[in-house]
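Memo to structure team: turn this sequence into structure tokens by end of day. - J.P.
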Amino acid sequence: MTTKDELACVYAALILADDDVAITGDKISSIIKASGYEVEPYWPGLFAKALEGVKVKDLITNLGSVGAAAAPAAAAPAAGGKKEEAKKDEKPAKKAEPESEEEEELGLSLFD
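Reply from structure team:
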């Protein structure tokens, strides 16, 4: 679950990255203080350490290209009708059965 403190640090880091400024804990803290919000003192340093050596702009722009590249690859099998028909003829996979009565009693089935 994302907290407001985490979001404040993310937005501050994005502001710094957009301005081509090095992302440091002090700079994240100063942006957050300027906004009038307060975070726990460890958050800015934690985010700065996590983003150390990361090109945030490249990270953001590459996220969109990963999804776009995966879409044509997923659409390709749908174009081949014979492959889909062959898969329909296959028998469905067997249902996983508990190895012992004890597992069944305790509800330790893998697919419950």
